[in-house]
Amino acid sequence: ERPTPAARPAPQPAPAKKGRSKLVLLAVAAVCLLGVAYGAGLLMNHSDVPKGTTVLGVDIGGGTKEDGVEKLDAALAKRAATPLRLSVDGKEVELAPDKAGLSLDSQATVRAAAGSDYNPVSVIGSLFGGERTVEPVFPIDEEKLGVALQDLAGASGTAKDGTIKFVPGKAVAVPGKAGKAIDVNKSMVSVRDAYRAQVETGRTKSVELPVVTKEPTVSQAELDRAMKEFAEPAMSGLVVIRAGGREIPFGPAKSLPQILSMVPVDGKLVDHYDKKAIDRLCAGVFDGVMITKGDGKKHQLSADDIAFAMKGALLGKTPAERTVTIDLEGNG
User: Fold this and answer.
1) Residue 298, phi then psi, degrees to nearest 5
2) Among residues 6, 268, 293, 273, which one has the least CA distance to residue 161?
3) pTM of the predicted model, to two decimals?
4) Most buried of 97, 115, 173, 227 (most Cβ within 10 A)?
């Protein structure tokens, strides 16, 4: 008979690793604390604009959107309205932001910052004074800015268009000349960036705008044409305007140089009449003379009516052709 084998002792469980248990407990505790902090942050930050929200260093958080707009305007409105200092070929000029379509939109900026921020980093950070930075909104009216720069280019440019001056007894051609002018397209970018920098920093510094060489829009050929077809005939003698049994002469020695000029329009020189000078020179001669207009009603004969009659008479070659009787009944 074989001996019964000795019974093996049952295996004992391995002792728990105390270090690992502590790490797990610490991790669970940390998650719990973070959860509590997150919840507390959400409760304490129950406002239109989350607490700790800043725009260019201005704290606009912790209140309503209206509060945020007021805070932003109080800090930055003056900067946003300060004229830009621009330099064009060494000549300094100023440009008002509102006339150039430039602005800081406080309401749009605050609207973008409004609403709850559920990012845990932001929420928990707000409990400890953390910041949430929001970019300002700078809407640009490019059409308005382009027009403002075009005006600036005309005022500050050194290019001159050819023109015709009317002086006592004659017309004088003045040739144009090339010069420097603002490069409007490139300047739009420069001005936009300069405005943003000015609002962001509060510092105003002169910005050099890019320039290009600009040729006169009125050519010598156009200048010659305008002299031959209008200016010289216009100054060749008296023009007599009659209406309602009254008349007044306009001569090249005194009257016509006060009335006449030529302005460039799309590369062409167009005759222009100074209506105030006409009124002054008429001195009430046609007061009470009425003319029937297109509306069928009678109106006082005006400088516009006289200028229209004068336009045809100025091209006349004989005294008869240079005398015009205005049709007061509107029959053409």
Assistant:
1) -90, 140
2) 268
3) 0.54
4) 97
Strand 298-300 relative to strand 260-265: parallel, antiparallel, unpaired?
A: unpaired
pLDDT at 51 over 50: yes
Note the pLDDT tens digit of each residue in 152-204.
877 776 778 889 999 999 999 999 888 888 888 899 999 999 999 999 999 98
Q: Where are the beta strands (DSSP E) in the chain?
A: 53-55, 58-59, 84-88, 91-95, 132-133, 163-167, 170-174, 179-182, 207-208, 211-214, 239-243, 246-250, 260-265, 268-273, 290-292, 298-300, 323-325
Our measurement of the distance from residue 194's CA atom to the centroid of its chain's CA atoms, rounded to an integer in Å, reads 14
**Rg (Cα) of the chain, in Å, rounded?**
40
Which of 234-254 are b and which e, b meaning 16 or more Cβ less than 10 Å from the residue's Cβ?
A: bbbbebbbebeeeebebebee
List, by residue range, all CATH 3.10.20 domains of the chain. Answer: 220-325
Structure tokens given for 248? 């007044």
Answer yes or no: is pLDDT of 10 > 60.
no
The residues near 108 (Cβ < 8 Å, ≥ 6 apart) are 137, 139
Nearest 5°: phi and psi at 7? Answer: -70, 135
Mean pLDDT along residues 261-277:
95
